[in-house]
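$ ./design --mode recover --in tokens.txt
reading tokens...
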């Protein structure tokens, strides 16, 4: 139970409050007890002075019966336990209750020795004590009022003697202590009640403001941990720290889900690109290599038959055609291998990759080819677009080698004022008329494949060509503006 944050918060705050309240009650108890004791001592002194005045007349008349009756009357007062008169030698002279002073006390008796110095001189006039032979353990206040030797007393006492004795009065403090104890326990009970109320308030406050809201996060977080990235936690209108935490989680979940979707799209795009490349290679092998190998086989058969027929000149002509066909197959295979080996590596830009590919293409095709980079050295294209642009250039240069009879080719990269990347593959070959011959030549030249690749990355595709004036393949790709979300 106490593992719950509700109890930790409630008890962690309520227990110090309870301890503080109880400590205050105990301190107040001792303060009030000391204050009431002082007040009782002052009252005792005043009562003793009054008793001394009442007894003066009886003592001056030396009327023992009157003195005894006066002491009895004083002893009947509320909270007075006993009253007695001792002479200067601490001998008991008279008391209202003689039995209470048996055996007769001396200066060293309990209740007397506390107020006298070792020499016997009275040092203090009141003290709170509990007599060991008393029927009750309740404390009492013993007050001593000195009886001075006044001129009226000189007829019976030595004038040189200043003090004739003392009036000892015992006061009960049971009423005072009982009330103080009662008040203290009332304070302790009130403190416990306040602490309990405070505990309950903190418990339910922690429950509704913290724990209940945190428990709502448990199921969504568990689903999220199991891979459900669509989980979002509803936000209340409290707009406090927990809502800030929920907003941070939701933002993190949105970002992670978007990244996961982008990775899935990129993976799907890579897979699609691989499959398209396989289909392209299959078409290339079928359209060129397979057909040429069939052509080579037929030519080889024809050469064999011509040699058997002793037609050597005709056989040599066939061999020349066979050599040309084998060269075309060799060139196609080399380009296919080059296309497969060339890829967009991590951290590389499209400009450097195209430059490297064009240099390799120029070596095996014997067609002078250059890359013209007009301010697009560090250009960053959207993810996946660089590979599609590379494949378009490969397809376009393959058409240049196979069909254009060009003496030269150029690959141009530039970025215009509208932040658009423009890729142009240009040759000075024979060209063709797209309006007349486009439908027939499109499968052969791979124009449909290039158009589909451009469309897949949101780019435009255009072929510009005229008979005898070469051909241009133009791709325009909008680039993301800095600071714009993808």
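writing sequence...
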């Amino acid at each position: 139970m106490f593992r719950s944050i509700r109890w930790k918060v409630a008890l962690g705050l309520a227990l110090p409050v309870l301890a503080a309240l109880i400590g205050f009650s105990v301190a107040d108890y001792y303060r009030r007890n000391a204050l009431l004791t002082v007040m009782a001592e002052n009252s005792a002194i005043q009562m003793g002075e009054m008793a001394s005045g009442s007894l003066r007349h009886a003592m001056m008349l030396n009327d023992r019966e009157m003195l005894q009756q006066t002491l009895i009357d004083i002893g009947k007062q509320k909270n007075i336990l006993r009253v007695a008169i001792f002479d200067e030698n601490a001998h008991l002279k008279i008391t209202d209750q003689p039995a209470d002073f048996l055996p007769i006390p001396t200066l060293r008796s309990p209740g007397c020795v506390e107020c006298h110095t070792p020499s016997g001189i009275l040092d203090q006039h009141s003290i709170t004590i509990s007599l060991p032979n008393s029927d009750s353990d309740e404390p009492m206040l013993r007050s001593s009022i000195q009886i001075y030797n006044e001129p009226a007393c000189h007829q019976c006492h030595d004038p040189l003697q200043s003090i004739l004795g003392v009036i000892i009065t015992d006061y009960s403090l049971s009423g005072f202590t009982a009330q103080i104890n009662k008040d203290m326990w009332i304070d302790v009970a009130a403190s416990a009640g306040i602490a309990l109320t405070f505990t309950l308030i903190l418990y339910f406050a922690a429950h509704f403001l913290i724990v209940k809201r945190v428990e709502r996060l448990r199921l969504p977080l568990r689903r999220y941990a199991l891979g459900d990235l669509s989980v979002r936690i509803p936000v209340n209108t409290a707009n406090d720290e927990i809502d800030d935490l929920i907003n941070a989680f939701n933002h993190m979940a949105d970002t992670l889900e978007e990244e996961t979707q982008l990775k899935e799209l990129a993976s799907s795009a890579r897979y699609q690109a691989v499959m398209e490349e396989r289909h392209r290679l299959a078409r290339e092998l079928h359209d060129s290599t397979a057909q040429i190998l069939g052509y080579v086989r037929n030519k080889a058969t024809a050469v064999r038959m011509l040699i058997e027929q002793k037609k050597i000149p005709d056989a040599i002509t066939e061999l020349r055609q066979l050599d040309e066909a084998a060269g075309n197959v060799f060139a196609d295979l080399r380009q296919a291998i080059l296309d497969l080996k060339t890829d967009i590596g991590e951290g590389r830009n499209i400009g450097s990759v195209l430059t490297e590919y064009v240099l390799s293409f120029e070596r095996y095709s014997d067609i002078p080819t250059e890359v013209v980079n007009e301010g697009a050295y560090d250009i960053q294209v959207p993810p996946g677009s660089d590979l599609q642009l590379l494949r378009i250039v490969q397809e376009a240069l393959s058409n240049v080698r196979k069909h254009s009879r060009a003496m030269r080719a150029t690959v141009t990269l530039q970025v215009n004022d509208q932040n658009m990347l423009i890729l142009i593959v240009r040759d000075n070959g024979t060209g063709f008329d797209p309006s007349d011959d486009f439908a027939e030549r499109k499968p052969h030249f791979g124009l449909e494949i290039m158009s589909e690749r451009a469309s897949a990355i949101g780019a435009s595709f255009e072929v510009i060509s005229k008979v005898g004036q070469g051909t241009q393949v133009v791709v325009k790709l909008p680039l993301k503006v800095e600071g714009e979300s993808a």
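exit 0
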